[in-house]
Design goal:
The protein has 285 residues and is of the alpha/beta class. 40% of the residues lie in helices and 15% in strands. β9 and β10 form a beta hairpin. The site of NADPH dihydro-nicotinamide-adenine-dinucleotide phosphate has 27 residues, from α10.
Length: 285
C-alpha cells in the first residue's frame, strides 16, 4: 500500500505561516485583499472561487469578485484591469482563464501589473520562474506541487523526474522549478514515443495531462512517488485525477489523491502570494 500524500497537511502547515503574516499586516494597519476577475459564470470558475473565498476567509484575507459580462470587449476589459492596477486597496488580482474568445490574451497578459499578478499571467512572472528569480509570483499549481513535495520531504536533487504535460501553466514552469532543485527532468507530451516506458523510469512521476485516469499500472514502477495534478470529470460524473488511483496505488511508494492532493494546496499558494504582495507594499518583507 502506498503512502498517501494528502494536501491537508501542507495546507495546515501553510495556514500557520500565513496567519502569522496576516497578524503582522493587520498590526501595521494593512488589510490584505485579492480581487478575482471573472467573465460570466462558468461552473469550474465558480467552484474554484468558492474554494478560494473559504480558504481566504479562514485566514482573514478579503476577496472581492468582479464579475464582468461574458461579451465584454477588449478595451473595456483592459480598462477594468488598469483600474485594479491603480487601486491601492487591492494587493493581488486573479483573472480566470481561458478568457472569452473575443478577448486577446496575448495582449491582455501584459496589462495586469506584475506586482499584482498572482498566478503568472504576465510573462514577467513566468520569465522569473525560468530565470530562477524568486522575486516574482510563479503559477500557483506548480508551486503547490513543490510545496507538497517539500512538506513530505521528497528529495529532488539528483532524482529522475518525468513530467507528463508541457503547458505554460503547469508542466513547463514545474520543470524549471524542479531543475532549480537539481532534479534531472524529462518533459513529455502528446508526441512522446513509448510514454509508459519513459514514465516507468521516473523516481518522481508528475501527471498533468488533463486526461481522466490516463496514468495506469503500465506507467508506474515500484518505489515511485506519483503526483497527480489532474482535475477531470470522470465517466461516473465524479471528479478524478489524471492517475488511475486504483491500479497505481498498489504498485508505487507514495501517491497524491485527486481530489484532496495538489488542488487543495493551490489556493494556499495563491493566498501566500497575496500576503507577500501586501507585505512588499507595506515594506514588511
Ligand atoms: P493542457 O491541456 O493545457 O495541457 C495538457 C498537456 O498534456 C499538453 O502538454 C499535452 O501535450 C499533454 N497531453 C495531453 N494528452 C496527452 C497524452 N495522451 N499523452 C501525452 N501527453 C498528453 O492542461 P493543463 O496543463 O492546463 O492542465 C493539466 C491538468 O491539470 C488538467 O487535468 C487540469 O484540470 C489540471 N489542473 C489542475 C490545477 C490544480 O490546481 N490542481 C490547476 C490547473 C490545471 P501537447 O502539448 O503535445 O498537446
Amino acid at each position: 500500500m502506498a503512502e498517501l500524500l494528502k494536501g491537508k497537511e501542507p495546507v495546515a502547515a501553510m495556514k500557520e505561516r500565513l496567519t502569522a503574516q496576516v497578524a503582522r499586516l493587520k498590526q501595521a494597519g494593512v488589510h490584505p485583499k485579492m480581487t478575482i476577475v471573472r467573465c460570466g459564470a462558468r461552473p469550474d470558475d465558480l467552484s474554484y472561487e468558492t474554494g478560494a473565498i473559504k480558504r481566504f476567509s479562514g485566514l482573514g484575507v478579503d476577496v472581492e469578485v468582479k464579475e464582468l459580462p461574458v461579451d465584454i470587449d477588449q478595451q473595456a476589459f483592459a480598462a477594468q484591469i488598469e483600474a485594479l492596477n491603480q487601486d491601492d486597496s487591492v494587493h493581488g488580482v486573479l483573472i480566470f482563464r481561458p478568457l472569452p474568445r473575443q478577448l486577446d490574451e496575448s495582449v491582455l497578459k501584459y496589462v495586469l501589473s506584475p506586482e499584482k499578478d498572482m498566478d503568472a499571467m504576465n510573462p514577467d512572472n513566468l520569465a522569473k520562474v525560468f530565470a530562477a528569480d524568486p522575486s516574482g509570483y510563479p503559477p500557483c499549481t506548480p508551486e503547490a506541487v513543490m510545496e507538497l513535495l517539500d512538506h513530505y520531504q521528497v528529495e529532488l536533487a539528483g532524482k529522475n523526474v518525468v513530467i507528463l504535460g508541457r503547458s505554460m501553466v503547469v508542466g513547463r514552469p514545474l520543470a524549471m522549478m524542479m531543475l532549480a532543485k537539481n532534479a534531472t527532468v524529462t518533459i513529455c507530451h502528446s508526441k512522446t514515443q513509448n510514454l509508459p516506458a519513459v514514465a516507468q523510469q521516473a523516481d518522481i512521476l508528475v501527471a498533468c495531462v488533463g486526461q481522466a485516469k490516463m496514468v495506469n499500472a503500465e506507467y508506474v514502477s515500484p518505489g515511485q512517488v506519483v503526483i497527480d495534478v489532474g482535475i477531470n470529470m470522470g465517466e461516473d460524473g465524479k471528479l478524478c485525477g489524471d492517475v488511475d488511483f486504483e491500479t497505481v496505488e498498489p504498485i508505487v511508494a507514495r501517491v497524491t489523491p485527486a481530489p484532496g492532493g495538489v488542488g487543495s494546496v493551490t489556493t494556499s499558494c495563491l493566498a501566500a502570494h497575496v500576503l507577500r504582495a501586501a507585505m512588499k507594499r507595506a515594506g514588511l518583507e
